[in-house]
Structures are given as C-alpha cells and as structure tokens.
Amino acid sequence: MQDESRHDRASAEPGRRAFLKTSLGAGFALAVQPVSAATVTTPSDGLTVGEVRVPSLGVEIPAYRAMPASGGPFPIMLVVQEIFGVHEHIKDVCRRFAKLGYYAIAPDLFARQGDATKADIPTIRNEIVPKVPDAQVMDDLDATVAFAGLSGSADVKRLGITGFCWGGRIVWLYAAHTNTLKAGVAFYGILGGTASPPSELKPRNPVDLAGELQAPILGLYAGKDDNIPMPIIEQMQKGLKDANSSSRIEVFADAPHGFHADYRPTYREGPAKEAWGKALAWFKANGAA
C-alpha cells in the first residue's frame, strides 16, 4: 500500500509525465562547454562501467554505474549530480570512487523533467530544476539503493552519498530522510535562505533539518561563494551545534563555488584535493568504506 500511495503522489506532481529521459548520452553538458584543460579523466580499466536502468515509481530512470570488475560486495556510493545532470564529470566521479573499491552510481534525478545535459543554463534553472520535487528525489535515491542491493555486487549496510551544488543540498535532505545511510559529504550545497525559498515541491531546506539528520554529514563549502554567503553557513553550523550533531561544515576560505569541478573555471586544485581527501577520510571513519 505504501508503494502505491507513493506512485499516486508522484503521478500528480507537476511535469511528472510530460517527459522521460531514457538514456544518459555521452560527453559533457552543453551548458558547460568548453571544458577546462584541467579536466580530470579517470580511466575505466579494471572497472565495470556503463549505463543501467533503475525502476522507480512506475518508470525506469537511467543511471551511470561504476564498480571494480571483480570482487565485492562493495560499499555503495550515491553520487548526486549538479544542475547539469549526469554528464561526463559526474560519471568520472563515479569512476574515481570505483577505483577506490566502491559500487558508485549516479541516477539521473531530472529524468522526468528534462534533459539538463542538452539545455542552456536559463532553461535548466527555469524549466527543469524548479520542477523536480524533493519527494521524488528521495524516492529515486531509495530505489537506486534497492537496485544496487539486488545486484549482488553492493553492500547496502555500507551506504554513502555525496553531491555537488544542487546535489550537495540533496545530501543533507537524504540524511534526514533515511536511517540506512552511514555517512554523506555535501560539496557546497544550497542550505536555504534567499537562494532556496520554500515551495510546494521543495518545502524544507538543510537549515530546517539540522536536528533531524540520521547520519553524519560533512559539508565542504567555499568562503567566496556568491550563492551561499557565510551567514547562512553560520546558521547551519549553529543548528548542528544546537542539535549536538555529529555533522559539521568546513569552509575553504579563498575558494569559490564549484571549486571541486575540475572541468570549469571555478576549479581550484589545492582546495579540491584537500576536500577530496577529507571526504574519503569521512566515509572511512563513519563506516561507508
């Protein structure tokens, strides 16, 4: 009965059935061209990589999966996209985790609302992202974990999640949604305030959920971020402290928003490498490795 009610709810959401992206495509998103010369490319040797289809709420959404070619079951790493969708950078992040022994998977969480990889930035911001309900995203992530578990190659008891920008916000929300998560790392995800006013499809933000997190989250944020100013970061930090939470936020003072995105001009090699190291250590320390 619970699954049927979820399906009915999702079907009633705006824009739900108007579009369904059935495959991921190749390369980098149109909106991020041209890519930077600093772009990192992780080879797939020794890995099993490629597109899979995840059943969720009555449809199948495409996802990119990467894991070691032998062994297992492996810890699961959910990789949550930026606003540009599951394009080559997100796939590369999956391969980076797979090289470290993870079953890494990135579901296309915009699949029902549009193809962000082929759209310009105004279209993404105005026509795709605002139509993606948080409830749908939570359901799709749950379905992705279930899919991984049924594969026989993944250990659902060692579940981690990481996300970037739009996906960073989702990391916080997912930690409040499920009790199966071991740990998460949010890269410069929107926390609330004027950058993310509440709406019918996005009723709550991370700053509203600081006391409800069911897994430790490490937030990796930028000190020179026009989208996420220090006052909202400090508000989140206070909320975590007041809740006696094991989650915390670290700020890279001289870095801009998107400092980990090596394919964009915002990339900062020093902070990116330091943040990546902190992320891996966080997952290991909290049982998601």
Summarize the helices and strands and which ones pair or pack.
Layout: H1 2-11, E1 47-56, E2 59-68, E3 74-80, H2 88-99, E4 103-107, H3 121-128, H4 134-150, E5 154-164, H5 166-177, E6 183-187, E7 217-224, H6 230-242, E8 248-256, H7 269-285
Parallel strand pairs: 3-4, 3-5, 5-6, 6-7, 7-8
Antiparallel strand pairs: 1-2, 2-4
Explain what the structure shows:
It is a single chain. By secondary structure, the protein is α/β, with parallel strands linked by helices. The chain has one domain: Alpha/Beta hydrolase fold, catalytic domain (Rossmann fold, 3-Layer(aba) Sandwich). It is 31% helix and 22% strand. It contains 7 helices and 8 strands. The chain has helices at 2-11, 88-99, 121-128, 134-150, 166-177, 230-242, 269-285; strands at residues 47-56, 59-68, 74-80, 103-107, 154-164, 183-187, 217-224, 248-256. It has an 8-stranded mixed β-sheet with strand order 1-2-4-3-5-6-7-8, with helices on both faces. α4 (134-150) crosses α5 (166-177). The longest helix is centred in the middle third of the chain and has 17 residues, at 134-150. The two termini are 34 Å apart. 47% of the residues are buried.
Short description:
This protein has 289 residues and is of the alpha/beta class.
Overview features:
single chain; 289 residues; alpha/beta; Rossmann fold; eight-stranded mixed β-sheet; 7 helices; globular; disordered N terminus
CATH uppermost class:
Alpha Beta
List the secondary-structure elements in sequence, H or E. Answer: HEEEHEHHEHEEHEH
Give the total of beta strands.
Answer: 8
β-strand amount: 15-25%
CATH fold topology: Rossmann fold
Would you tell me the overall average pLDDT?
94
Give the CA-CA distance, first to last residue.
34 Å
Shape: globular
Helix content: 25-40%
* Main structural class: alpha/beta
Domain Dienelactone hydrolase: 61-285
GO molecular function: hydrolase activity
Protein name: Carboxymethylenebutenolidase
InterPro entries: AB_hydrolase_fold, Dienelactn_hydro, Dienelactone_hydrolase-like, TAT_signal
